[in-house]
Amino acid sequence: MGNINASIDLRRDGRIAIVIADNPPVNALKHEVRSGLSQALRQAGDDASVEAVVIACAGRTFFAGADISEFGQPPQAPSLGEVIAQIEAMPKPVVAALHGTALGGGFELALACHFRVAASAARMGLPEVKLGLLPGAGGTQRLPRLIGPEKALRMIVTGEPLGAAQALADGIVDEIAAGDLNTAAAAFGRRAVAERRPLRLIRDRDDKLIGEGFADAAATLTQRLRGREAPAACVEAVRNAIVLPFEEGLRRESELFQKLVAGDQSKAQRHVFFAEREAAKVPGMPEGTKPRPIARAAVIGAGTMGGGIAMCFANAGIPVTLIETGDDLLHKGLDRIVANYRATVARGGLGPDEMERRIGLIAGAVGLDAAAEAEIVIEAVFEDMNLKRRVFAELDRVAKPGALLATNTSTLDVDAIAGATSRPQDVVGTHFFSPANVMRLLEIVRGAESAPDALATALALARRLGKVPAVVGVCYGFVGNRMLARRSVEAERLLLEGALPHEVEAALVEFGLPMGPFAMMDLAGLDVGWLIRKSRGEHAVIEDALCEAGHFGQKTGKGYFRYQAGSRAPIPDPEVERIILDASAELGIARRKIEPTEIVERTIFPMINEGARILDEGIAARPGDIDVIWVYGYGWPVWRGGPMYYADRIGLEQVRDRLSFYAGRSGDDSLRPAALITRLVAEGRGFAV
Ligand code: CAA
Ligand code: NAI
After folding, report:
1. Is 128 a catalytic residue?
2. pTM assigned to the model
3. Distance 479 CA to ligand 2 centre (A)
4. pLDDT tens per residue, range 130-139
5. I want to staple 647 with a disulfide (CB 3.0 to 4.6 A). Which of 67, 290, 592, 608 is the partner?
6. What is the pLDDT of residues 513-523, one digit of tens each?
């Protein structure tokens, strides 16, 4: 972290010492913080007038963990483990005062204290698994002793934090502060002294260490690892807590941590952590640009995307009006939303009251006049330029001055849409991914005239909606779909040359993607692309033949695969195989066996190549932005860090050579290495460095 001005303040509240760490923004436990803390603890320990010690933090949160940017650097004493040992050796009560997000090493430090007092809004947990790690400062040994191995394992393997009330119920915290946190923590310390409460350390407890049910819980939690190593290491470490003495378990935890932190997966996941935060910063945005306030939204078009986008607003507590052209379509759209919410309630993902509250935030209306009250309007009508321009011209007439006018177009020129208004500075693209209420990515499309504060508003909105934003420029398909299109072309070629859909799927699922190109197309529906191709006079041999045979994807129970009623599991289909073999024969292609390595290279490398062009054109500002788009929009395996990071890892020289090879063999010049790749290889560099 850039900040070197970390400070540790030692205050007094009567005979209680309050150690207050201040290392904005999130009080990461970097070296200065650890050494300051250690010094303050020594001072408070040596001072005979101090009866108890409170460890607290200034600013927005208790320690949010180790400083991730220190990983991979030479360790500097004292380590977090040493500070923790110092806390446990204190002969006076030590109370942790938790507020904000007490995460990772911060939460582990709190677990070493004798007592924990939390603010009511505090959240706490061990998110290390999300960085490809396990808690490395005793969390895997102390938490099972405090709440039992099963519950601890769930927290450690999912990385999901708990709220203060749940933590109190589970016995993780001893008290929720009624008023000022530090005052309450000091009062707790004073009471502990007066009542001579025993200073029992979590490490010395074993009453909760019951192994029964652990194996089942571990199996359930690690069912779908998709190549990730860290969750299995978490299981091993927690199992050690049950079967090994504390010190031995701690030593093994540390070994597992060291292995993971030095490994490729965690490096990739740390890259994504920082890339995600970097992506929210727009190069060239004037300092201090303020987002415009948003109190009410309108969404135009109650179809697949409009409905999902309206749910995003309701989920974030923002009232929204969903607008259609007629009552029937409106009610259909609203009914679909209610059905979606009901399904979530039925799965236990939402309480019925909360569902009602959210549904209550969604109003329906016919006609664009209903957008007049909104500070943001998102258009999600059919993908038709004339229609979109008509809608925006009308919005120009009805929308409030300064309202953000956004289009959800997936391919069209945002500048041409903005040109239909007299206020292009207020127009941006907000490209949600389907299903909009689930997928985390938001591509924010910056038009030629989009004002800085319009972009800032879109970024702030993304955060409120719980989305991960990446700002991109105007081009066909923007970043994600433009790269995806390259993959689709190659995927069809692979079929014509000899691969079958399930072989392509298997190779890419093995690579770590949640699904391959054909299962994805089956999910989205093949008919959409077919209609577009027909209107443009384009062809895709196999896909066109499939559509002609009524294979529209999951919606018709058959696409590239067959689907049994009520199931989304793709089953290889002999009829599809016949269509593919016929297509190869018709084109005079002698089919051959294609190995998984070739399948991966031929689908992934052309995407990287397109990513390089996108960077060169300035459509994406940084390679990390492209990685964020693929991780959050398309389920790219986070432990592979995104396509551009992956390219750097395997080396651009190899990417260049393989692309040249495939370009030469196919005669397709679009596969030739992009100028940026050639340039970077000549300079001995990668995309990132
Ligand atoms: N180390 C270094 N930098 C960190 C950090 C950390 N642990 N956590 C956050 N930051 C930085 C971010 O990179 C960001 O920097 P910039 O402003 O320069 O971009 C800044 O702090 C603010 O972060 P966010 O934008 O994410 O702020 P937020 O308010 O949205 O979220 C948060 C706050 C919930 C704490 C979130 O930052 C977060 O989840 N952080 C990571 C927590 C974590 O994983 N902790 C475990 C660390 S590993 C560990 O502790 C190992 C161990 O066992 C010893
Ligand atoms: P859809 O066909 O499901 O819904 C469009 C809706 O807009 C229809 O209900 C239609 O009645 C309504 N509509 C048409 N003209 C209108 C008008 N003048 N006023 C109000 N409502 C009007 O389409 P879908 O899939 O939701 O797509 C919408 C937009 O989102 C398109 O631009 C599309 O390219 C884009 N998109 C679609 C994705 C997808 O996976 N379906 C993903 C990302 C973007």
Report:
1. yes
2. 0.95
3. 20
4. 999 999 999 9
5. 608
6. 999 999 999 99
